[in-house]
Amino acid sequence: MKIDILSVVPQLITGFFDYSILKRAKEKGLLEINVHNLRDYTNYKHGQVDDYQFGGGAGLVLMIEPLANAIESLQKKTLYDEVIFLTPDGEVFNQQMANSLSLKNNLLLICGHYKGIDQRVRDHFITKEISIGDYVLSGGELGAAVLADAIGRLIPGVLNDETSALTDSFQDNLLAPPVYTRPETFRGWKVPDILLSGNHAKIEEWRYEKAVEITQQKRPDLG
Ligand code: ADE
C-alpha cells in the first residue's frame, strides 16, 4: 500500500513515520508513505499557497492552484483509490473506516491549514472527507498521522502477531478485555486464576465475557 500525504508543514509528521510501527512496515516493503510539501507545487512568488477569503472574514485559505497542481502531478504517477481531505466537518473516523481503507492500494491524504481550503478543491478533487473527532485542530497533519497509523497497522504482516489486530478494541464493536503479564502477584494483587489455567477454551470465554462487560460499562453506545 502507498499513502501519499500533502501538507504545508511536512516536518510536523515525517518524524512520526520514522519512529512508529509504520517504520517496520516501510522496512518490510508493506507500506510506502511519502509526505509532499504543497509549497513545491505553487507558481506564486515566495512559495505562497494561501490567500484571504473572498467576501471578507478572518483567516487564510489554501488556494486552488497549488492544490490542483499538486494533486494532478501526484495522480499522474499513482492511481489513488481515494483522495481524502482531513477536516473537522468530515465523517468521524472509526475502526470500520480504518478496516475498509486498509484494503485499498493507494491513498492521497490532503491536510488543510489556516481557515481551510478553497471549496472548489473539495468539489472537484476530493473523494472522501474525514474528521478524527469533534474538535478543531490547527491543521490536518495529526489527522493524517492518525489515519496512516490506524490503517497501516492493519496491513497483514505489519504487526508481529497478525491476530493481534483482530482482538483490538472496536473490532466487533467490543472494547478489548484486560491483559496481564509477569509477575503473577505484585503487592498481593493477583492475575486472574483463569489466565494461568492453561484451558484455552475457558480463557477465550472469559475474555469475551470481560469484553462484553467492559463495553457495557464504558461504551454502552457500541453495543
Ligand atoms: N483538521 C482540523 N481539525 C480536524 C479534525 N478534527 N479532524 C481532521 N482534520 C482536522
From TrEMBL:
TM helices/strands, residue ranges: none
Enzyme class: transferase
SUPFAM superfamilies, alphabetized: alpha/beta knot
GO CC annotations, alphabetized: cytosol
Pfam families: tRNA_m1G_MT
PANTHER family associated with the record: TRNA (GUANINE-N(1)-)-METHYLTRANSFERASE
Subunit details: Homodimer.
The protein's name: tRNA (guanine-N(1)-)-methyltransferase
Gene of this entry: trmD
